[in-house]
Amino acid sequence: MGSGTVEIITGRERRRRWSVADKLRILAECDAPGVQVAEVAARHGVYRSLVFQWRRQARDGLLAAEPTPEFVPVRVAVADRQDEVLPEPEPAPLPSSRKVAAIEI
């Protein structure tokens, strides 16, 4: 009996989700001079066809970078008169404990 490898399958392999930033980073690696797409794809564990699909999406403008969140300046205004009293809001009506159902015939 020879020594071989035993592969244990524990479940279904899941589909990986690549972020836009990851896709753009992989595409940038492919654009370096002297680099083959097949090498980059193998290094990241994806098929070459997927890299070419991402390249086509980027060319068509469908693979835009995600917008980065930014802070917005806010200015807080101080009230002119502190002695002004607002009227009390009217209390909300209490919900009825009885449920009404209607059937249209």
Write up this protein.
The protein is mostly helical. It has a domain at 20-59. The protein is 30% helix and 0% strand. It has three helices and no strands. It has helices at 20-30, 37-44, 48-59. Helix 1 (20-30) crosses helix 3 (48-59) and helix 2 (37-44) crosses helix 3 (48-59). The longest helix has 12 residues, at 48-59. It starts with 19 loop residues before the first helix and ends in a 46-residue tail after the last helix.
How is this structure best summarized?
With 105 residues, the chain is an all-alpha fold.
The average pLDDT value, as a whole number, equals 83
Helix count?
A: 3
Category from helices, strands and their pairing: mainly alpha
- Report the sheet with the most strands, covering strand number, pairing sense and barrel closure: none
Q: Low-confidence parts lasting 5 or more residues at pLDDT below 50?
A: none
Shape: elongated
Percentage of β-strand residues: under 5%
Distance between the termini: 80 Å
Order of helices and strands: HHH
